[in-house]
Amino acid sequence: MDSTTSNDAETLLSNITKLQVPPNEVRNLIRHGKLPQNISTGPLCLGYLQSNIAMMDKEYADDYERFCKLNSAPMPFLYRSAPGEVGWPNYTNPGTDIRVDSGHYWVRRRGCDKEETLSELLSLPEPWDNMVTFYFGCSYSFYKYLSDAKIPVPKSVSVYQTNVECISVGPFNAKLVVSMLRIPRHLIGQACRITQHLPQVHGAPVHIGDPRFVGITDPSTVLIGGADPVIHTFDLGESDDTVFVCWACGVTHIAIARTCNLPVIIVGADNQLFITDFKMPSEPPISNDGSEISVIEISHKKRLYNMVTSACKDAVYKLTHLFNSTTGASAVCTSDVDLNHSNGLLKSAAVLCSNECKNVAIHVSDVEGLLACVDLIAMLTEIGKKVSIITEGDFIDVCKSIIQRCIENSYIPCHKNSYEMTSWCSYAPKVKHLKENINQWKYVIRFEKVSENCQSSGVGSNQYECALSTCCEFDISDEFQFSWNLNEKLTSALTIAIYMVSMCPVADRYRRHGLGEMSSRIQLSERLRQRLPSSVKNGERIKVLRINEFSSCSTSLVETDVAGAEYKINIIINEYENKLQLFD
Prior knowledge:
The strands form 4 sheets. Strands 1, 2, 3, 4, 5, 10 and 11 form a 7-stranded antiparallel sheet that branches. This protein has a 5-stranded mixed sheet with strand order 16-15-14-17-18. A 4-stranded antiparallel sheet has the order 6-7-9-8, with helices on one face. About 35% of the residues lie in helices and about 20% in strands. The chain starts with 5 loop residues before the first helix and ends with a helix. Helix 8 (about 335-350) crosses helix 13 (about 485-505). By secondary structure, it is an alpha+beta fold.
């Protein structure tokens, strides 16, 4: 088979594809050595399920199955055979034999640095009666859906290893491997929705945007496939309207075979998968119940993305409209204003919940600003972020005192190393200070009154403004700006939006890159709900913290908080939580 020329292989591939040769006949070609090893099964038998395979002694099968289920995105578990079983009931016709019907095989033995390549396993020296075969899905099975939707899929899809660690079980561990497509920006959402409800073949993407966020630094370092000849760097210009989209890839199982050090483990070749007789649905199962994916473009310039359900997006939009409509007579809101604020709020919540944002800095300049941020600080800390509070030098002692009282009274969770204080003396040195110490914060939430001594970000009104800024450029980008008239309302809205995104199963899976398991939604809700803002909590907090020691005007917070809209806010939250229960 290895002597087959490229032209011969192309001709054979064209004939098989054109004639729509069914799976059993393609397997027969493989069994008799008539399908060259340089032909990928990807374009063959479109519409039929193709499967990755792994074989090992039954002694290790329980750990491997657990590994597959804990890392379901790269290893979507479909079937575990009985020891010695050669078929796959309900998925293959009688007479199918996994030992000869899956192209060539890579055999890895303990103590060997390289795999042995075999065209069949009938002559395997290990006793077959002890071998267990695992079958798990492959993205080859959904490429037809993408192509039908005019989403470009190259003949050879590039596969890369990330720096994301899979969840280890027993001897099995590896770094996540992904297949990468370059997709026009306007088609990303459609690609996600097409694959979302196909968990048996990897499901929705596990990363969208700059591949360097997941440790892929060089486009030429492909494991299999070919790097796009047009791509020499991942630094796409702002005018480039394409985005890199990564799906978890079954080639992860090859990485596992190379690290597990079993006496023997056998995997299918990376380009020739096991073709089943199982016909995939003619159309992908796309939902319209609120569980469908909405892709959030946090920054096109930085190629930073997140994803949520449409139910989450709609809830944040309702929340925005409610806050905009209750900010006072001076706020004349239109649908465009609501939409801009909604996008800003959703993007801000999405980035603050993402893996890329581990350290957050919040800038406050007075007691009112700090109190307005207490619930936000508590929510960010509760979801595992490290919060830095940045303030002027003459306010830092007051700031520390208030934060300490908040911790003592459980208004802020007491997690080790969860927050720190940083100060500066005046605005000009402040900017210099931030630029010199920028690496410790990924994002800065600026929240302050606009005055002669404080430059404005250009958003906000009635003296108050807020903006989310990437620290690498302290000048605040338009992509990260959002504001309401009053600071308490703004931070309340952002805190609630973070809660909604944190509870979203789609956002949670994306954050985990499809690895591990989502926390119990009930337990997560109970833990995060106590950090949601309320007028009762706000009024009580002002008294308990003895704020009058620091500020005579602090009680004005009670008059301008979310009390008037609290009933409606709870309705929005409850409706959203009820939808989440339907998705379980």
